[in-house]
Amino acid sequence: MIDRRHTLSKEERLSWKRHIDLLFAEGRSFISFPLRVVYLPVEEKELPSRVAIMASVPKKKFKRANKRNLIKRQIRESYRIHKYDLIDPLQEKGTSMLVAFLYVDKEIRSFAEIEKSMIKALKALKDK
C-alpha cells in the first residue's frame, strides 16, 4: 500500500497573485452546492505541487471573520481528507491544476454537508 500523507502544505495552497488572476480570468467553473469550483489545468512545470487550491468565503454574506474562518477551515479540511481522489488521476495524466473553492450559501453548513459537496466536486474535477 502506498504511504500517503494527508497534509495540506504551503506548496499546495494557491497564493501567487499571478496564478490567482490567471485562474479567475481563464478558468472554468461549476457549482457543487454550497461550493462554486473554479478550476484551470496548467502545465506541470508551473506549480510545485500537482494541485494548488484556495478557499474563499464572501465578506458580504458573513460579516464576522470567525464565521468566515470556520467555513474556510471546513473546506480545507474536507479537501485535505479527499485530495488523493483528484491528485492520483492528474498524476497519471501528467498535468497540474489550479482550483478555487468559493462558498456560495448564506448559512453556515455542517462539516458533513461540505464534505459531501467536496467529494462531488472532486469527482467532477477528475472527469474534466
TrEMBL record:
<keyword id="KW-0819">tRNA processing</keyword>
<dbReference type="InterPro" id="IPR020568">
    <property type="entry name" value="Ribosomal_Su5_D2-typ_SF"/>
</dbReference>
<keyword id="KW-0540">Nuclease</keyword>
<protein>
    <recommendedName>
        <fullName>Ribonuclease P protein component</fullName>
        <ecNumber>3.1.26.5</ecNumber>
    </recommendedName>
</protein>
<dbReference type="GO" id="GO:0004526">
    <property type="term" value="F:ribonuclease P activity"/>
</dbReference>
<keyword id="KW-0255">Endonuclease</keyword>
<keyword id="KW-0378">Hydrolase</keyword>
<comment type="subunit">
    <text>Consists of a catalytic RNA component (M1 or rnpB) and a protein subunit.</text>
</comment>
<dbReference type="GO" id="GO:0001682">
    <property type="term" value="P:tRNA 5'-leader removal"/>
</dbReference>
<comment type="function">
    <text>RNaseP catalyzes the removal of the 5'-leader sequence from pre-tRNA to produce the mature 5'-terminus. It can also cleave other RNA substrates such as 4.5S RNA. The protein component plays an auxiliary but essential role in vivo by binding to the 5'-leader sequence and broadening the substrate specificity of the ribozyme.</text>
</comment>
<dbReference type="InterPro" id="IPR000100">
    <property type="entry name" value="RNase_P"/>
</dbReference>
<dbReference type="InterPro" id="IPR014721">
    <property type="entry name" value="Ribsml_uS5_D2-typ_fold_subgr"/>
</dbReference>
<comment type="similarity">
    <text>Belongs to the RnpA family.</text>
</comment>
<dbReference type="GO" id="GO:0000049">
    <property type="term" value="F:tRNA binding"/>
</dbReference>
<dbReference type="Pfam" id="PF00825">
    <property type="entry name" value="Ribonuclease_P"/>
</dbReference>
<keyword id="KW-0694">RNA-binding</keyword>
<dbReference type="InterPro" id="IPR020539">
    <property type="entry name" value="RNase_P_CS"/>
</dbReference>
